[in-house]
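Regression check, S-adenosylmethionine case 271:
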Amino acid sequence: MKKYTGAPLPFQGQKRRFVHQLEELAVRLGGGGATFVDLFGGSGLVSHVLKYTCPHCRVVYNDYDHYSERLANVGRTNEMLRALRPIVSGVTRTRRIDEPVRSQVVAEVERWAKSGYVDWFSLSSNLLFTMNYAHSLEEFAGQTLYNRIRQDDYNVEGYLEGVEVVSMDYRQLFDQFRLVSDVVFVLDPPYLSTDCGMYKSDSYWRLTDYLDVLKCLQGTRFVYFTSSKSAIIELADWMGRNQAIGNPFDGAKVVGGIALNYDDIMLVKAI
Ligand SMILES: C[S@@+](CC[C@H](N)C(=O)[O-])C[C@H]1O[C@@H](n2cnc3c(N)ncnc32)[C@H](O)[C@@H]1O
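Current build output:
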């Protein structure tokens, strides 16, 4: 099995900076043969590192974004990039691709889109400005293109070897494993105030959604990731120290605000 310290295909939010800590954790928790359930699997990097470090452990990767489909199509992606390289060869690396080359690139991508699967995220990382992602030919054709094309093929060999791949909402997967003995849940939800443009769930994650995730932490063994910019830990700490308070807004009425088309709201409880 080959060791990866980063996801082999581009993925925003992958935990490459935590590989070392995850290895230590797998050694410490996996000794007795734990089951790791990666509820927000993303690129599968966490699952890969856990399985690589602890081969006898069961590792379940929740591939909510269908990353494994991208892996399965890597041959086609490599072929497409090979066809695109000569087209952009006259453009300085990282520079904007202007006409007439731009139209040639779009025509080539259209040819691939018409004949089958296109990994739009990998293509975007090669031809769009950093952190810009197109999800379709229409979106791609409407963007400014840059020559960020990589010079070698992607290699994904053995990346998910031994890992069990599933794809479902994290709550459903959590329910399937909550009573399994020796289970360790990995929770790496989309961060608050993070651009989730690359993720399948383009539905907006509200504060309630982040708080709902915390229900999976109660009475379980877990690894939880969050951003230092998120106030979740501070909020949870405060709630823990002030449990008796309940919901102080219980019975209060919202006055004004959204209905009147402004952001501020007034809550009133006068009895
Ligand atoms: C921060 S990323 C996880 C990154 C991952 N740990 C890695 O190393 O690549 C969060 C992931 O949660 C996924 N997600 C969003 N809503 C979800 C849901 N309801 N159930 C499961 N996964 C979800 C997103 O699509 C995204 O892939």
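Comparison notes: The chain has ten helices and seven strands. The pocket of S-adenosylmethionine is lined by residues 7, 11, 13-15, 40, 42-43, 45-46, 62, 64-65, 169-170, 188-190, 199-201 (CB under 6 Å). No diff flagged against the previous build.
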